[in-house]
Design brief:
Elements lengths: L2 E6 L9 H14 L3 E8 L8 H7 L2 E6 L2 H14 L3 H4 L4 H13 L4 E5 L16 E7 L2 H11 L4 H22 L2 E4 L2 H10 L7 E3 L20 E5 L5 H21 L4 E5 L5 H4 L7 E5 L5 H5 L3 E4 L9 H8 L4 E3 L16 E2 L3 H12 L7 H12 L2 H4 L1 H11 L2 H6 L1
Length: 405
């Protein structure tokens, strides 16, 4: 059993969005096998209520409130210091002091950083016996490059600068680490190109699906509902919702006029809420559980034109046994077979035709069951996290090495 300091940029409770879902399952797995101290930023202040839950599963926990005033101050600091904005966002002196105390008093064997932004707290500050493992999740700098390509000035310049700063910061984090983790082989190759020094340290641990997702019972009498799940203040999801409503849904409704596009997810941005003015569009906002919406979907869609890493929304739709239509980018790192396990729409026309085929019963009748079977075989959390056990064991070393240290 190792002593692990686990740092996450967002509170892993509740596991209700992509990065929190992954962090939650990693933390849950480690806490069941090791002694874990958890430090996290809380940019959603409601998550602070989960501190007792964290302390029940960990030796200790500290959540730092990152309200909008704190975030604004951090952004100002980034502008002066030259730090990446996406790193500065998660600075907090409370968390810094708590981490210093844990490093000094606990002397952890492993510091596990979920999201490279949290490496700012430990690089150059760990004791000689600690080993750093960084879950980069995806090649985040590539996301900022993609934003820059799609934006106009001055946003284009800001995004491009963020990509450059982030590459420099992440290279320092990887230099200090014994291992880095990515969510897919594609992301590993991308980061290896961006961070050539230490590329041999990079490993892949893909995302899984929680067992309760497999318990969704599809409703055989569903309405022609097209469901898109995700946090709706996240730019790739906002862009995907707008693209679907403006360019895809009209083509679908030409073939199935009663089709409904249901956008399910927390914190819908103003641009998403505005889509309700379009006939056939519904925006739910926060829901306590997405599973009833998956069960009631005739088809689940992932119309993402900007996508990094493994898309949980795709895995959950497949696990629920629903037909899934996705862009090629949304399927990156998911080896489902197009036409058997999932349908692929590379452009608005192709996407619309695939969705309409499902709604009209033209698509393969066993599409949902095949997709479900694929996820059961290849994306269960318990099997995915066996690789993390090996990484932690390698980082800690054999018992004799621990005694010598």
């Amino acid at each position: 059993m190792a002593k692990i300091l686990f740092l996450a940029h967002r509170v892993p409770f509740p596991p209700d969005k992509g990065d929190k879902i992954r962090a939650f399952h990693l933390l849950e797995h480690l806490a069941a096998r090791h002694e874990v101290w958890l430090g996290a930023g809380a940019d959603d202040l409601a998550d602070l209520r989960c501190l007792p839950l964290a302390k029940a599963s960990c030796r200790d926990a500290c959540f730092a409130p990152l309200d909008r005033f704190r975030r604004a101050g951090n952004m100002a600091w980034a502008a002066v210091s030259g730090a990446p904005l996406s790193v500065a966002r998660f600075r907090h002196p409370l968390l810094e002091r708590w981490i210093e105390d844990v490093l000094r008093e606990v002397r952890p064997d492993v510091v596990f950083v979920f999201s490279s932004a949290m490496a700012q707290y430990v690089v150059g500050r760990m004791g000689p016996g600690a080993r750093l493992v960084v879950d980069f999740v995806d090649a985040d700098a590539e996301k900022w490059r993609a934003y820059a390509e799609r934006a106009s000035a001055p946003a284009r310049w800001i995004y491009a600068a963020e990509a450059r700063r982030l590459i420099r910061f992440e290279q320092r984090a990887l230099d200090a680490a014994v291992a880095g983790i990515l969510v897919s082989e594609t992301e590993r190759r991308l980061l290896a190109k961006l961070l050539p020094d230490g590329a041999d340290k990079l490993h892949v641990i893909t995302n899984g699906v929680a067992a309760d997702c497999f318990g969704v019972i599809p409703d055989p009498n569903v309405e022609p509902a097209i469901v898109f799940c995700g946090r709706m203040d996240y730019e790739p999801n906002i862009d995907g919702a707008e693209w679907f409503v403006r360019e895809i849904l009209p083509k679908v409704r030409e073939r199935r006029p009663d089709a409904i596009f249901r956008i399910v997810g927390a914190a819908p941005a103003a641009r998403v809420l505005a889509l309700r003015a379009t006939p056939g569009v519904e925006v739910t906002g926060t829901v306590p559980d997405v599973r009833p919406y998956l069960a009631g979907a005739a088809v689940v869609v992932a119309p993402l034109r900007i996508a990094r890493g493994i898309q949980n929304k795709v895995l959950e739709g497949l696990a629920a046994g629903r037909p899934v239509v996705a862009t090629p980018d949304a399927l990156d790192g998911i080896a489902a077979q197009p036409g058997r396990d999932v349908l692929v729409g590379a452009d608005a026309h192709g996407f619309a035709m695939a969705v309409a085929d499902v709604l009209l019963g033209v698509a393969p009748a066993n599409l949902g069951s095949c997709g479900r079977r694929f996820v059961q075989r290849h994306h269960r959390w318990d099997t995915q996290l066996e690789a993390m056990d090996r990484l932690i064991a390698d980082a800690v070393g054999p018992p004799s090495a621990q005694v010598a240290a």
